[in-house]
Amino acid sequence: MGNLVESVGQETRQKGNFMEEQSQVELVREILSCYESKPSRLVPLLLDVQGSVGYLPEEGMRLIAHFLDMSVGQVYSVASFYSQFQLTPIGRHRITVCRGTACHIRGAPQILGEIEKGIGINEGETSSDLEYTLETVACMGCCALAPCIKVNDDVHGELTPRKVKEVLLNLDKEGADAQ
């Protein structure tokens, strides 16, 4: 759906701000207007809303449920089942640490600890300023680059605690340049 809805949502997320609830509702309604009211459209709708808003807001899921003539529980059940759906806002910098065997053996626990110390949050948390979200995955499939992390869409491999500090420092510089 390469239209205005998508570009507005992307622009908002890139600025590191999440929309006011009223704007989110307007955006969700605009997305709904592009769909047929069929329960089979649930997952594509959830993907589009998350792609535009940055996560699945509670009010957005209520609107989707009403639009598809489903219960909110049914919509929430699907949204909470799939790990790619976010039910809370995520940070502008989404940092994912691989915990696969190769990464673990080559120091992923130390890398995770260094990141937690560097950004001031623990695994599974988002900073209050919505700058960072820190999460782990079982395996990223980049075993030859172990240990590795992903920051948004960029993979950083063969990490050491010193290299992690450089990655975080570059994120801080990007943030300062954007303001």
Compact description:
This protein has eight helices and five strands, in the order H-H-H-H-H-E-H-H-E-E-E-E-H.
Using the coordinates above, name the CATH class of the largest domain: Alpha Beta
Shape: elongated
Radius of gyration over C-alpha positions, nearest whole angstrom: 18 Å
Ends apart, CA distance between termini: 29 Å
The CATH architecture designation of the largest domain is: 3-Layer(aba) Sandwich
Measured as a percent range, the helix fraction is 40-55%
Structural class: alpha+beta
The CATH topology label of the largest domain is Glutaredoxin
Kindly give the count of domains. 2
Strand content: 5-15%
Low-confidence stretches: 1-17
Count the DSSP helices: 8
Strand order of the largest sheet: 2-3-1-4-5
Question: How many strand elements?
Answer: 5
Major pleated sheet: 5 strands, mixed
Mean pLDDT: 87
